[in-house]
């Protein structure tokens, strides 16, 4: 997951409009700060998000020998399971802004003895490959954070072969994603959070199914299919564990929490923990997420 923020001494949801390069730079810096938390929690994240990865890959209709591009690859998902599907004769390239995240992906690929995959850090200004190179493209929870999403989709179309397919995952409506909004709603009580413009990059930029469908069509894709999938995003034994995971993984929340003075931070974190504990059923609590999964083919 990649989240857009502003300068580290400002609220990341302020209504001022940053340039595309500002967004790229700040995104990269935010996710560098939590890369160690992503390494620590990699198995937890992989397990919770694997149903999304597998459904995306199913819709790409991968076969041995296919060449796949995974955009916003982060710690290597779904690039690594894609590499298993395309086999030794296939090839997967994963790209991301944050090389510290890709270092985790490279370690995982080595552990699984995958020789058909590589990970490249990119500048975020485009897709650095020639036209008609890939059979399929995946982008899990990345498009909604990009400053110019239609331009990126047009780049995806450019590097796809004729009849090539893409798979995207974008978070659905906030009310269906309590894993994120639970802590964020409490944060908004402790910090001023002006409403961002409706089309601003962010977690829920493509929460409306219609917007996702329209931008795919406008970018030159056809046979668009969009479904929603509900997953158990965070499972924890206590509210304290939930907050620890969120602070280690959720870049914008972590950045904002670090801006608080000690007294405000103590009050905020205590409220998050107590309210999460109230959600426990038995000895554990589960906070769910709902994502759109979109598949489409390149229009001629």
Task: Write a concise keyword list for the protein shown above.
alpha/beta; single chain; Rossmann fold; 300 residues; 22% strand; 11 helices; disordered N terminus; 7-stranded mixed sheet
Topology:
Layout lengths: L19 H14 L1 H6 L1 H19 L6 E5 L7 H8 L4 E6 L2 H13 L5 E5 L12 E7 L8 H11 E12 L6 H13 L18 H10 L2 E16 L2 H11 L1 H9 L2 H16 L7 E14 L2
Helix pairs in contact: 7-11, 9-10, 9-11
Structure write-up:
With 300 residues, the protein is an alpha/beta fold. The chain has one domain: 3-Layer(aba) Sandwich (Rossmann fold). Helix content is 43%, strand content 22%. The chain has a 7-stranded mixed β-sheet, sandwiched between helices. Helix 9 packs across helix 10 (251-259) and helix 9 crosses helix 11 (262-277). It is globular, with a radius of gyration of 19 Å.
Brief rundown of the structure:
The chain has helices at 20-33, 35-40, 42-60, 79-86, 99-111, 149-159, 178-190, 209-218, 239-249, 251-259, 262-277, and strands at 67-71, 91-96, 117-121, 134-140, 160-171, 221-236, 285-298. It has 300 residues and is α/β, with parallel strands linked by helices.
Q: How far is the first residue's CA from the last residue's CA?
A: 31 Å
Q: What is the strand tally?
A: 7
Briefly note the CATH topology name. Rossmann fold
Shape: globular
CATH class designation: Alpha Beta
Query: Roughly what is the average pLDDT, rounded to an integer?
Result: 90
The count of domains is 1
Which regions contain 5 or more consecutive residues with pLDDT less than 50?
1-15
- Approximate strand percentage: 15-25%
The number of distinct helices, counting runs of at least 4 residues, comes to 11
| Largest sheet features | 7 strands, mixed
Strand order of the largest sheet: 3-2-1-4-5-7-6
């Amino acid at each position: 997951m990649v989240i857009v923020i502003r300068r580290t001494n400002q609220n990341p949801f302020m209504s001022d409009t940053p340039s595309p390069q500002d967004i790229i730079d700040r995104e990269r810096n935010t996710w560098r700060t939590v890369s160690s938390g992503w390494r620590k929690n990699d198995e937890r994240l992989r397990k919770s998000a694997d149903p999304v990865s597998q459904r995306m890959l199913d819709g790409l209709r991968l076969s041995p020998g296919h060449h796949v591009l995974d955009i916003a690859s982060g710690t290597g998902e779904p690039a690594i399971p894609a590499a298993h599907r395309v086999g030794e004769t296939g090839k997967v390239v994963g790209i991301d802004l944050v090389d510290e995240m890709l270092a985790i992906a490279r370690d995982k690929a080595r552990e699984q003895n995958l020789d058909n995959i590589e990970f490249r850090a990119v500048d975020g200004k485009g897709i650095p490959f020639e036209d008609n190179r890939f059979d399929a493209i995946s982008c899990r929870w990345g498009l909604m954070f990009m400053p110019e999403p239609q331009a990126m989709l047009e780049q995806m179309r450019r590097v796809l072969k004729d009849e090539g397919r893409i798979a995207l995952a974008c978070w659905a409506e906030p009310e269906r994603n309590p894993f994120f909004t639970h802590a964020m709603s409490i944060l908004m009580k402790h910090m001023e959070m002006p409403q961002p413009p409706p089309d601003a990059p962010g977690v829920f930029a493509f929460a409306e199914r219609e917007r996702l469908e329209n931008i795919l069509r406008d970018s030159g894709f056809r046979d668009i299919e969009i479904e929603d999938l509900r997953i158990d995003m965070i499972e924890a034994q206590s509210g304290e564990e939930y907050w620890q995971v969120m602070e280690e993984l959720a870049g914008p929340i972590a950045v904002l929490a670090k801006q608080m003075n000690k007294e405000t931070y103590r009050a905020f974190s205590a409220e998050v923990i107590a309210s999460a504990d109230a959600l426990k059923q038995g000895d554990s609590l589960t906070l769910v997420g709902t994502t759109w999964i979109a598949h489409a083919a390149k229009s001629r």
